[in-house]
C-alpha cells in the first residue's frame, strides 16, 4: 500500500493535490499541534473538508498531545485509520478502544528513538503500527535505516501469527529507500516529498508501488 502524505502538498490547493494521487491506497494526513512536535498543520475542520473532497481512505497521523481527548473526533469525521503517538498517551489501549468505537481503525506511532518492546503487548488492540523513520514534524528528511530492526521484529511476529497489525512506515521513503523497507516487511509506505515533489504525483505513486512489489 502507498499512502501519499499531503504534508508535501500545496495547502492552498488541497483538493487539486488530493485528486492528483487518485491511485493511492490511503491518503496520509499529518495533524500537528505545535506542542508534541515543533510544527503546526491542520485539524478536524480541514480533515472533514478533505473527507468530502475524496474517496481515498484517510489515514490520520496525529502528532499531538492528549490524543485521548482529540483522537476520536477524527474517527467520527470518517477517517479510515487514526494513528496517535505512543509517547503522547498514558493509556494507549483506552485511546485505541475509543477510536475503534467511533468507527475507525486505530494506529500506534513510534518515534525513531522509542523502543518497540514495551508496546508489543498492547498491539493486539491496534489495527496499524506506524514506525517513524524520521523525527516527526517535517517532510523531506533523511530516512533512518536503523528503525528497520523494529519492522523486522514486527514482521517476524506477524509471520508467527502472534500479531495481525498492518506495518506502516513514515519518513524519508523514496525510490532509493522503499525497497529496504519492503524487504524488512513493511505493508504500507507513507511518502510525502517523493510523491508531491515529483513532476507527476500519480505516476510517482505507481512507481513506488512497483518498486516495493519487485522487492524479493
Ligand atoms: C513527518 C510526517 C510525514 C511526512 C513524511 O512528521 O509524519 O508523514 O509527510 O514526509 P517525507 O515522505 O517527505 O519524509
Ligand atoms: Zn506522517
From TrEMBL:
<comment type="similarity">
    <text>Belongs to the ribulose-phosphate 3-epimerase family.</text>
</comment>
<comment type="function">
    <text>Catalyzes the reversible epimerization of D-ribulose 5-phosphate to D-xylulose 5-phosphate.</text>
</comment>
<dbReference type="GO" id="GO:0006098">
    <property type="term" value="P:pentose-phosphate shunt"/>
</dbReference>
<feature type="binding site">
    <location>
        <begin position="170"/>
        <end position="172"/>
    </location>
    <ligand>
        <name>substrate</name>
    </ligand>
</feature>
<keyword id="KW-0464">Manganese</keyword>
<feature type="binding site">
    <location>
        <begin position="192"/>
        <end position="193"/>
    </location>
    <ligand>
        <name>substrate</name>
    </ligand>
</feature>
<feature type="active site" description="Proton acceptor">
    <location>
        <position position="30"/>
    </location>
</feature>
<dbReference type="InterPro" id="IPR011060">
    <property type="entry name" value="RibuloseP-bd_barrel"/>
</dbReference>
<dbReference type="GO" id="GO:0019323">
    <property type="term" value="P:pentose catabolic process"/>
</dbReference>
<keyword id="KW-0170">Cobalt</keyword>
<feature type="binding site">
    <location>
        <position position="30"/>
    </location>
    <ligand>
        <name>a divalent metal cation</name>
    </ligand>
</feature>
<feature type="binding site">
    <location>
        <position position="5"/>
    </location>
    <ligand>
        <name>substrate</name>
    </ligand>
</feature>
<dbReference type="Pfam" id="PF00834">
    <property type="entry name" value="Ribul_P_3_epim"/>
</dbReference>
<dbReference type="GO" id="GO:0004750">
    <property type="term" value="F:D-ribulose-phosphate 3-epimerase activity"/>
</dbReference>
<dbReference type="InterPro" id="IPR013785">
    <property type="entry name" value="Aldolase_TIM"/>
</dbReference>
<feature type="binding site">
    <location>
        <position position="172"/>
    </location>
    <ligand>
        <name>substrate</name>
    </ligand>
</feature>
<dbReference type="InterPro" id="IPR026019">
    <property type="entry name" value="Ribul_P_3_epim"/>
</dbReference>
<feature type="binding site">
    <location>
        <begin position="137"/>
        <end position="140"/>
    </location>
    <ligand>
        <name>substrate</name>
    </ligand>
</feature>
<keyword id="KW-0119">Carbohydrate metabolism</keyword>
<dbReference type="GO" id="GO:0046872">
    <property type="term" value="F:metal ion binding"/>
</dbReference>
<protein>
    <recommendedName>
        <fullName>Ribulose-phosphate 3-epimerase</fullName>
        <ecNumber>5.1.3.1</ecNumber>
    </recommendedName>
</protein>
<dbReference type="GO" id="GO:0005737">
    <property type="term" value="C:cytoplasm"/>
</dbReference>
<feature type="binding site">
    <location>
        <position position="61"/>
    </location>
    <ligand>
        <name>substrate</name>
    </ligand>
</feature>
<feature type="binding site">
    <location>
        <position position="61"/>
    </location>
    <ligand>
        <name>a divalent metal cation</name>
    </ligand>
</feature>
<feature type="binding site">
    <location>
        <position position="170"/>
    </location>
    <ligand>
        <name>a divalent metal cation</name>
    </ligand>
</feature>
<feature type="active site" description="Proton donor">
    <location>
        <position position="170"/>
    </location>
</feature>
<keyword id="KW-0479">Metal-binding</keyword>
<keyword id="KW-0862">Zinc</keyword>
<keyword id="KW-0413">Isomerase</keyword>
<dbReference type="InterPro" id="IPR000056">
    <property type="entry name" value="Ribul_P_3_epim-like"/>
</dbReference>
<feature type="binding site">
    <location>
        <position position="28"/>
    </location>
    <ligand>
        <name>a divalent metal cation</name>
    </ligand>
</feature>
<comment type="pathway">
    <text>Carbohydrate degradation.</text>
</comment>
Amino acid at each position: 500500500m502507498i499512502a501519499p502524505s499531503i504534508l508535501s502538498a500545496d495547502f492552498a490547493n488541497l483538493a487539486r493535490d488530493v485528486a492528483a494521487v487518485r491511485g493511492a491506497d490511503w491518503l496520509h494526513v499529518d495533524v500537528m499541534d505545535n506542542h508534541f512536535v515543533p510544527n503546526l498543520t491542520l485539524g478536524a475542520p480541514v480533515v472533514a473538508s478533505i473527507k468530502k473532497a475524496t474517496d481515498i481512505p484517510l489515514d490520520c497521523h496525529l502528532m499531538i498531545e492528549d490524543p485521548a481527548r482529540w483522537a476520536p473526533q477524527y474517527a467520527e469525521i470518517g477517517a479510515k485509520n487514526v494513528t496517535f503517538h505512543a509517547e503522547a498517551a498514558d493509556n494507549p489501549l483506552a485511546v485505541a478502544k475509543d477510536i475503534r468505537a467511533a468507527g475507525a481503525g486505530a494506529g500506534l506511532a513510534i518515534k525513531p528513538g522509542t523502543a518497540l518492546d514495551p508496546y508489543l503487548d498492547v498491539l493486539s488492540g491496534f489495527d496499524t503500527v506506524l514506525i517513524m523513520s524520521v523525527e516527526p514534524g517535517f517532510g523531506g528528511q533523511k530516512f533512518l535505516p536503523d528503525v528497520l530492526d523494529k519492522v523486522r521484529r514486527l514482521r517476524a511476529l506477524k509471520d508467527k501469527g502472534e500479531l495481525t497489525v498492518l506495518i506502516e512506515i513514515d519518513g524519508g521513503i523514496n525510490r532509493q529507500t522503499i525497497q529496504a523497507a519492503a524487504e524488512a516487511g513493511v505493508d504500507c509506505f507513507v511518502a510525502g516529498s517523493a510523491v508531491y515533489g515529483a513532476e507527476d504525483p500519480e505516476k510517482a505513486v505507481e512507481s513506488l508501488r512497483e518498486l516495493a512489489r519487485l522487492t524479493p
